[in-house]
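Second attempt. The first submission of Peptide ABC transporter permease had a stray character pasted in from the spreadsheet, which I only caught after the job came back as garbage. Lesson logged: always re-copy from the clean sequence file. Corrected sequence (331 aa) follows.
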Amino acid sequence: MKFYARRITIYLVTLWATISLNFLLPRLMPGDPAEILIAKMQRAGEVSETTIRNIRLILGSGDDVPLWEQYLGYWGRLLQGDLGISVTKYPTPVTELIANALPWTLVLVGLSTVIAFVLGIGIGAWVGWRRGTWVDHLVPGTTVLQSIPYFWLALILVAVFAVNLRWFPIFGGYDVFAFPEGPEPTWAFLSDAIYHGILPAITIVLSSVGGWLFGMRNMMVATLSEDYIVTAEAKGLRPRRILQAYASRNAAIPSIAGFSITLGFVVAGSIVMEQVFTYPGVGKLMFQAVQNNDYALMQGVFLVITITVLAANFLMDLVYGFIDPRARHNV
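This time the job returned cleanly.
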């Protein structure tokens, strides 16, 4: 219980620091972000006094409102689910834009990361078990793929499989003509979305699987030299049982601990990857916010990405404490 209480406390403090940093960033930037947004919105049409006042309260301005009152007001709006109004697609609320884009990124990045993790752990365990044979040549190849930047690998895949071979669409997350008219998605739309997401998913898998394979292979080599493995072999257990029940299970523990940390790098890399494929996810939304100086949208996307990564780390910490009792007793 002490292990879980300490983890919850650490993540609550981290969440508070993240939200506070998200509040301070626009106020630490040179110039007046609020006035920039107001001027841009006024070029698109008339802006009400209420909207102008809300923008100044959210982003800060030269008004006489103390910083601590702005901070408390920010927390109050945040607890009500109010992240402000987007200038990029005025007057759409930021929460609505993120709610529409977040499922695309979660499904794409989540499934691709899980696939890369499972493939890397499975193949890495096999390579470590067959160390010194021809299968060791898989490690340099996958390591080279991991060293290639996301956007460069994405451009190569688009040029080969989309432009030259025409196997996949060049850009987008779905065909606009397949978009469902009602609130419920149709099978044609889902199949078309899967078809558009294959190349982005392959990009994430190829860029991530090498690290899992290399780490699991080295852990398998170290685990196979442990005394309990030698004892299991001396008892005459079948090699397959030793591989599955003794070696792979214990060698995979460090990889499980690093799974959530890697998720953060995948999410960060997906910002550029989604821009290459014009994929309608959070990464593309963040890119548009930066281009248009949409501070409210930037704050919202940054907050959602950070909370998502913190939640993934928290869940994996709990899982790690469950599968490895040593972590609970060494608090």
